[in-house]
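Q: Here's a chain of 460 amino acids. Please give me its 3D structure as tokens.
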Amino acid sequence: MSASTLDGLPAEVVACICDWLEPAALFPLLQCSRSLHACVVGCLAHRLRRRGARCCTLDLCSRQVEQLWEFVQARRRLPLLDGVPLPIRCVTAVVVGAAALAAPPARCIAVLGWLADACVETVQLDALAPAAPITQSLALHMRCWPNLARLSLAYAPGPSGPVQASQLLQDLSPLLALRHLEIGGAVPAWPQLPAQLSSLVLRNTHISSQAFERLVRQCPDLLSLCLVHVDVPSLSMADGHQTIASLDLACLVPSCTKLHTVHVESTTLDANAYAALASLAIDSLSIVRPSGGLLFAPDTATVARMVARVSNLRLATVPWVTDGMIVQLLTGCPRLRSLSIEHLSKISDEGIRQSVQRLDDMAARQIAASQSDARTCLETIEVVRCAGLAWQPLLDLVAHSALADPQCGGALANVRVVLSHVARHERGVMQQAVERHRKRLRVCGMEASAGAFLFEGDVR
């Protein structure tokens, strides 16, 4: 598009055309008439401001770096744009992936330099290679961002194993605002952590119990701990066999007295680890696919102590959960507000029927009204694909007055049941029964509960 084509058009039309032209196509138009020059400059300024409002997350692997480079070049060529702030001043999150580490680092490092005045709160480094120039530059800049509160480090193994640790990433204690740290991959050496850290996530990594103890001892204010696919080096026996090792969580008891949220997934826990969890005042506990199967199953007494103070509990693909434990959870945990059970193979309709019977006995003796420690106040129940459970006992349970009727002390407001199979001839009967219960909820004025009462299942 030539300058003469635009010169005779109204300013509003020129502005619309300039708005979708690339910066490189706008530069030749700056040699035209004064009015057209002012319109093009105004368009560039508007674009810079608009990108500044949208650019909250800067991904160094994306086209954002090229666009920022183009606009910075435009600022240098147009003195009238000097007063327009760079669009990265509003960046609050920086993401560095494998593509950025493999690309020529000059522009990425230059962009990091422009972030000196940005209010960066989150940094995510994927496929981390400490020897890469961009990693070194980012590690330096992190110490200049006083609001950096969340940091994610995912190490990538080198050609011959774990890479050498970067000295700048070995000591994170100068990051005074850091509250959340996620670290994983082929970690070459575990860093020094800031004492004020409140959330720690270990993901897809190997760590010894000794190294784990050193980590948690540095974080006396730790509130949340997440362990996902964390392996512990196996022990070699005298006969040459390898034994499964469990992560020692006993160090949490004296070191992390404020810990209230624990998520463990695909990580080996033995009886001592479960006993340590039982000794903590945990408010939210999630156990998903614990490694070791029934070999490291805790006893019933340990489970009872572990969930006694829990208000949010999730158990998914846990082989040691039995009907007796389900009865205890549904009727004997006074603080439990949310219960989610998924893919539990050892529970059956008998455990649900026993829970209903226990609730009936409690109501008959008026224990729910006279003894608060014997009352359950569940608000949310989620049951997902537990093969031994049928829909009718579950509906009897979640519709029980002791759970669902506010006049009887119940507080159950959200129910989601996903059955692994439903016979075709029973599907209609189930839906009719569920709809009748929804109507009862609406009659009682519990519209929210009626909308959150869901029963689903695959037709067999």
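Q: Can you summarize the key feature?
A: The longest strand covers residues 414-422.
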